[in-house]
Write a structure and sequence with these properties.
This protein is α+β, with helices and mostly antiparallel strands. It is about 20% helix and about 30% strand. It has a five-stranded mixed β-sheet. A three-stranded antiparallel β-sheet has the order 8-9-10.
Length: about 160
């Protein structure tokens, strides 16, 4: 299994999988393993669903940069990824059971695990690690980032909560 973990002596480490190039730019961060190019995309045909060609974690700015096979490039803040985690802990087990995530402004990503060849599972600095982010879901977050961010800020305001 591939993973990124803190604690390596490498300043910049990179490992190219056959299908996805993973990079990270942070002192003491290493990449172990790789992904292959056998993508599965939540029931969609691999021919019709874009897949990542490059994923970069920018630790200083707390952003995941992801490039897809159709040319789209997204810069997803770690906070956005955390508050829209596809986990049951965040989404609940049905409509209306969502849990508003607060206090995530400075959340980081400590590790990133591949899940098969169709998703990644980040481990956030607040301990959250149960969200599995399929390529389709990451693409959705990228395409709808502005709208989702606006909705999140509105929900925080309505709840009298802060980021």
């Amino acid at each position: 299994m591939s993973s990124w973990t803190a604690g390596s002596s490498s300043t910049t480490s990179m490992l190219a999988g056959k299908g996805v190039l993973f990079r990270t730019y942070i002192k003491g961060f290493a990449i172990l393993g790789s992904l292959n190019d056998n993508y599965v995309t939540d029931g969609a045909s691999p021919m019709s669903a874009p897949t990542p060609t490059d994923i970069t974690l920018h630790q200083a700015s707390r952003v995941m940069e992801i490039v897809f096979s159709d040319g789209h490039r997204f810069r997803l803040p770690f906070e956005l990824l955390r508050v829209y985690s596809p986990s049951a802990e965040v989404r609940g087990h049905g409509p209306g059971q969502e849990v508003l995530q607060t206090g995530k402004k400075d959340v980081g990503i400590e590790a990133l695990e591949p899940v098969g060849s169709y998703a990644v599972q980040p481990r956030f600095s607040d301990g959250h690690d149960s969200g599995i982010y399929s390529w389709d879901y990451l693409y959705h977050l990228g395409m709808n980032q502005a709208k989702l961010w606006e909705q999140y800020l509105a929900r925080l305001k309505a709840a009298g909560a802060s980021r």
